[in-house]
């Protein structure tokens, strides 16, 4: 409906503005301070990044109520991966926030989302540019595996701090005698991360074929 299409346009516009601010901030800080700016990336843009990622949870609801025709499982996996790494791994360990991998991870996320929300926003009003369409459905295939590697590296970097501080580890007293050692949970999650990557990459190839097929390319050119 017109109302839902307008709502999705506003949602994409909000995400576009947020990620544009992040991208501009990262570029200006790097041009001004060089590599010194990498260590405090989280402190300078972390709040806006967290807001954008929390807002992206709405995309799961969009799929569930039918206003977004994307497949649920790949989108759910991608959103939960970011939420877990950002809020559970990075946000909870101040020592990890200053690592260069956080800057790399934020740059990859931001670049992917900036292209995706630009494409979605224009598509809502019936505007399709073939170069942007190609970039939207091709760049993710290249950059998403790199972002998974960056997530895995961030988790590995965080493990010594979770072991030292005991963050999120739970040990219940008798008679329960039950404990959860959170570093083991993160190590098991690494396996889930790479299995999920296979599912998401397959979905990316499927979407690319659907939107960049010969017939679709001709339609967009015309």
UniProtKB/TrEMBL annotation:
Its EC number is 4.2.1.134. It is an enzyme of class 4 (lyase). This is Very-long-chain (3R)-3-hydroxyacyl-CoA dehydratase. It holds the Pfam family PTPLA. It is found in: Endoplasmic reticulum membrane; Membrane. GO terms for molecular function: very-long-chain (3R)-3-hydroxyacyl-CoA dehydratase activity. Its main location: endoplasmic reticulum. One of its GO terms (cellular component) is endoplasmic reticulum membrane. InterPro entries: Tyr_Pase-like_PTPLA (IPR007482). Keywords: Endoplasmic reticulum, Fatty acid biosynthesis, Fatty acid metabolism, Lipid biosynthesis, Lipid metabolism, Lyase, Membrane, Transmembrane, Transmembrane helix. The chain crosses the membrane at residues 9-30, 42-65, 127-160, 180-201. GO terms for biological process: fatty acid elongation; sphingolipid biosynthetic process; very long-chain fatty acid biosynthetic process. The lineage of its organism: Eukaryota, Metazoa, Chordata, Craniata, Vertebrata. It catalyses: a very-long-chain (3R)-3-hydroxyacyl-CoA = a very-long-chain (2E)-enoyl-CoA + H2O; (3R)-hydroxyhexadecanoyl-CoA = (2E)-hexadecenoyl-CoA + H2O. It is a multi-pass membrane protein. Pathway: Lipid metabolism; fatty acid biosynthesis. It comes from the Eukaryota.
